[in-house]
Design brief:
The chain is mostly beta strands and about 700 residues long. About 0% of the residues lie in helices and about 45% in strands. The mean pLDDT is about 90.
Length: about 700
């Protein structure tokens, strides 16, 4: 009869020692059982990094793929997520749990220790005050102006004077010149057989000046029938009209008249000060004017006969990262005529708080215009607080207001996690928050979900998040924040440690009062149900647990030690750590001790300790020999019926005798301080061992 152990497993303290499987252990501490052999763990005495925080509780590797790498560090529980931002070249990183939600990036995060050395508040707030708008008065509603013009010998405008400056005018004014040309002078003619035969008595033609009049035949056939008239001039004045050729095919009732050629080309401007026109400028004199007059028809080119358009304005803050927040309250509505200038004053140039603001964008909405939304008018840099808007719709730079609901995160939001499709989630109180996809600064209030219990932590599953609370867990799933649906999970398993929450492979694990709970698409499972009783689990003080996934195992540290749970079972470690971090690029697990980061299972051998189940034999026996297969030496302790019968360090692969003189039914074998063990055998004799 002999006892053979050729595979080594983990602990199951919930099971009576005699009922354990052959490979299971009463003690499996500081051992690696992943390949079936028994290998002692390693414990690092040297630091991968020495930090400022002591004890360090949260670390994050920044610029992980770069030449220079930096450790973000905190002495508190902080959530750090690298942003899913398209075309990100500065490694935008988002932080909750260290005061208000924040963000940092390469140019500000690494200026000095401890890292991150600088950060900005996350999100872009909405301005609290509406823009102040006013419209230039112009000639709309302005009255009382009068003036005269003087002509030169070329009949161009040589001078302009102001008779009355009027009231209500504003700025640079458009001037309309009217040429007071004479009325038409009709010339009677007689026709016979379609031929113009004579001219009747002429009217007074003295109002018509040389080179500024023409003859017009007003029938529908025009000049195409050969009649020829000549105008007679004397001292620049029209004195007569003669008929030299009667033509042919003219209808009866044809009318011939003299028309004046109106002057053209003059361009004048007026300037008003304090509502009164006090200056006239002749930009161009023009030609061929008779008796011109002028009037101020508009301010800045306003057409006072046009219909007004109602306009209102908003503005938004924008950061140096081109992150844009929600708009201000709208301005008062103003009536605008084409050509007017609207003055827009920004009462709040920057928000209160440490935001990375570079300026504001000004938008307008025009009732009756072609734009159905607030459209971008202009950008004002930091320090510029006024915009003079004279831009027509067709000349706008393009772009509409899209950040209407881009609310900043609640200032108490914590628990930040990264999700699929560019989303992030966080929480405060009983509220779950979701950001706009790929825009981690925008957290619309409309995307929030409310649960019935205080939230402890969040876990990430495929197309969803698990909301872990002080009561029932919930599942929120969907592919976009707008289509997320929340439903309760039937198992009432509360979460008692936010830092124990671990997401991996479509499942979420966390510490509850009953054990380590796993939630996956296949349902909810207590991973420690068959390993630890509720009392044994709570003796580990689960409210202090910190969890992480490593090499397919759930690694957990608590206030008095640590353990690993995987397919191979449960093993305990002597490591006491205050922080855990999975360095993906280096493919290693790091843990925090004091102000140091050390590598998990690297360094010197920890010694290892493994104690077998309690083997119950049919009848008492006296085993006389044992052998440990492996490398190097090993300390072996053999207990029979609760009495230690052997405890010594021996060489592996050699046969060793046990003391005689007793019989026992219950046998236990314990090994420690070894290099690697392949198997253990206990037999009646050395010959039996070798058989």
């Amino acid at each position: 009869m002999k006892i053979s152990i050729d595979t080594f497993g983990g602990e199951a303290p919930a099971v009576a020692p005699r009922l354990l499987k052959n490979a299971q252990a009463q003690i499996a501490k500081d051992v690696d059982i992943s390949n079936g052999n028994l290998v002692p763990c390693k414990v690092s005495a040297s630091a991968v990094a020495t930090l400022t925080a002591n004890p360090v509780k949260t670390v994050h590797k920044f610029n992980a793929s770069g030449v220079a790498q930096y450790w973000f560090e905190w002495d508190k529980d902080v959530d750090v997520v690298k942003g899913a931002v398209p075309n990100d070249t500065i490694e935008k990183t988002y932080i909750t749990g260290d005061g208000k939600p924040r963000m940092t990036f390469s140019s500000i995060a690494t200026a000095s220790l401890p890292y991150p050395s600088n950060s900005y508040l996350l999100g872009v707030p909405a301005p609290s005050q509406a823009p102040l708008v006013s419209v230039g008065n112009g000639a709309v509603g302005a009255t009382g102006f009068a003036g005269t013009l003087t002509l030169d010998e070329n009949l161009g405008i040589s001078a302009a004077s102001i008779t009355t400056g009027g009231t209500g005018y504003d700025g640079v004014l458009a001037v309309a010149v009217t040429d007071n040309v004479p009325a038409l002078a009709n010339i009677p003619v007689s026709t016979e057989g379609g031929v113009i035969t004579s001219i009747g008595t002429l009217p007074d033609l003295s109002a018509f000046k040389e080179d500024r009049a023409k003859l017009v035949i007003t029938d529908s056939l025009g000049y195409g029938h050969g009649a020829v008239f000549e105008m007679v001039w004397s001292l620049g004045v029209l004195t007569g009209v003669t008929l030299t050729e009667g033509g042919s095919a003219y209808p009866s009732g044809v009318v011939v008249h003299v028309e004046a050629i109106p002057g053209s080309g003059a361009n004048l401007q007026a300037v008003a000060t304090a509502g009164v026109v006090d200056d006239i400028v002749i930009v161009k004199a023009g030609t061929n004017y008779y008796n011109p007059s002028y009037d101020i028809t508009s301010s800045d080119g306003i057409d006072s006969n046009s219909l007004p358009i109602s306009r209102t304005y908003v503005y938004t803050y924008i950061t140096n990262q081109d992150e844009e927040g929600p708009p201000s309250p709208p301005s008062t509505i103003v009536e605008w005529y084409e050509g007017q200038v609207i003055s827009v004053d920004i009462p709040e140039a920057t928000p209160t708080g440490n935001y990375d603001i570079k300026g504001v964008r000004v938008y307008r909405y025009a009732d009756g215009s072609s734009a159905a939304d607030f459209v971008l008018v202009d950008f004002l840099s930091l320090g510029v607080s006024n915009l003079q808007d004279d831009v027509l719709d067709i000349n706008l730079p393009g772009g509409t207001l899209v950040s209407l609901e881009y609310d900043p995160p609640n200032e108490d939001m914590v628990g930040l996690v990264s999700m699929a499709n560019g989303m992030m989630a966080g929480f405060f109180g009983k509220e779950v928050c979701l950001c706009e996809p790929y825009l981690p600064y925008a957290w619309p209030v409309k995307y929030r979900h409310t649960v019935d219990f205080e939230i402890v932590g969040l876990g990430v599953m495929t197309n969803g998040i698990v909301v872990l609370t002080t009561g029932q867990p919930y599942l929120i799933r969907g592919t976009h924040p707008s289509n997320m649906v929340m439903e309760p999970i039937d198992e009432d398993q509360a979460c008692i440690s936010k830092r124990s929450v671990v997401s991996k492979g479509g499942s979420v694990a966390y510490a509850s009062p009953d054990g380590l709970i796993s939630i996956s698409p296949n349902g909810t499972k207590n991973l420690t149900k068959d390993l630890l009783t509720r009392a044994q689990w709570n003796a580990l003080n689960p409210s202090t647990m910190i969890g992480i996934y490593d090499e397919g195992n759930y690694v957990c540290c608590y206030d008095a030690g640590s353990f690993v749970i995987g397919e191979d079972g449960l093993t305990f470690r002597s490591v006491i750590a205050t922080a855990l971090f999975r360095d993906k690029l280096e493919d290693r697990l790091l843990y925090g001790v004091g102000n140091e980061l050390r590598a998990w299972n690297q360094g010197a051998l920890a010694g290892g300790q493994w104690k077998s189940k309690k083997f119950m034999l049919p009848k008492p026996v006296n085993f006389g020999a044992f052998q440990v297969s492996g490398t190097g030496s090993v300390t072996v302790k053999v207990t029979a019926d609760g009495v230690e019968r052997f405890n010594d360090t021996v060489t592996c692969d050699d046969s060793h005798r046990l003391p005689d003189g007793f019989l026992a039914r219950e046998w236990e074998i314990e090994v420690s301080d070894f290099e690697e063990i392949y198997g253990v055998e206990v037999a009646n004799t050395i010959t039996e061992l070798q058989s």
